[in-house]
Hints:
11 strands; disordered N terminus; alpha+beta; 3 helices; five-stranded antiparallel β-sheet
Amino acid sequence: MYNNDDYDNERAWYVIQSYAGMEYAAKRNLERRIVSMNMEDYIFNVLIPEEIHYELKTNGEKKEVITNPYPGYIFVDMIVTDESWFVVRNTPMVTGFLGSSGGRAKPVPMHEMIPILKKSGVVVNVEAKFKVGDKVKVLSETFLGQEATVESIDMDNQMVTVLIDMFGRQTPNELRFDEVEPIKN
């Protein structure tokens, strides 16, 4: 059995799987378990992303249609500990964590949540965990794992311009706040 030292105990978004078509039942079950098992300090938000589309009816009226762009998946904002992991994993209608191979393997946090939250209509304001001149590690696909230096920060658009060493030259690249993390010295 893992102890809590095996987890980094940082708040992050995780993706859990449920039976297709049962996402809302799984969400309700999880929200009830959070309260009944006193996990409010570890599990903060349970989200099923929704998109609103408008379809034209035959009489010319617009009809609002809400769709789930990720059927079978639920997003959970939580701190992973043995107890919180157990509560989520053993919730009726939840089949497991995405990115966890089972056998009590630690789930992998979701780093690209800001676009999903924005697409779902959730207002997201992320604090910059860095300042101009700081060294950061890039989390986006193109430059994954590379070190960069923060050149400028755009708080309004939640964007950061970093200088990445490419072919011996410092090249500016604009990234979202969630695409970089500060390097701890």
